[in-house]
Amino acid sequence: xxxxxxxxxxxxxxxxxxxxxxxxxxxxxxxxxxxxxxxxxxxxxxxxxxxxxxxxxxxxxxxxxxxxxxxxxxxxxxxxxxxxxxxxxxxxxxxxxxxxxxxxxxxxxxxxxxxxxxxxxxxxxxxxxxxxxxxxxxxxxxxxxxxxxxxxxxxxxxxxxxxxxxxxxxxxxxxxxxxxxxxxxxxxxxxxxxxxxxxxxxxxxxxxxxxxxxxxxxxxxxxxxxxxxxxxxxxxxxxxxxxxxxxxxxxxxxxxxxxxxxxxxxxxxxxxxxxxxxxxxxxxxxxxxxxxx
Length: 293
Hints:
With 293 residues, the chain is mostly helical.
């Protein structure tokens, strides 16, 4: 069976790959959007924190025998705690300064983290086995779907939309938004605004680590995996609108699918299509598709 002259199996597999990539784009850009939208910090260390999540999960399995499911819960907490440390000791001093200072600081932190892991583990990739419960696949008739790939999509969408609901529809989210827009008023109501800000950064970092654990069985775990991905993720954030929660989710998934389709119809452009779209969006709507004008 063919669709537009393309075998359905090929088209379906590329759309699946695009949706998986889009799931990673969505969850990583969501973490960036939360940190920028609520803290006004451009977190260039996000890719390194994603890589840390993958490496901690790999080390937990190979050195301590800690399985995937425990790592999926514990790793975001560990890396999120590291994010809390960064916020309390370094980033807190930059909130009243220009965005450039936060970008430069987090870029330096990213280089330090990446350098430490490169020194310890080199740049060759480390394999991480798919958990037994999610091994194998199912036939959809027109294509074969690996169960773990399906799990990535479900887990990423659940976390993304759960985060959107928490920020947009709950009292905690209202406190977070109010605390960044008018901290004096919220502080007067007896709410610890600095603690809320620390929690926000830690949660954004934890999202990156969660994505890293999801990625470990799919991609080779290596110190460069974050730096290879973070540029595309920043493009996703710009296209969706800096600080837009829903924009990051929808744009990440959409661009993943567009990237997958491009590999089918015009493979040569698949590596640059996201940046072409970014340029067009910046020219037409500088605030992004979902950003406030």
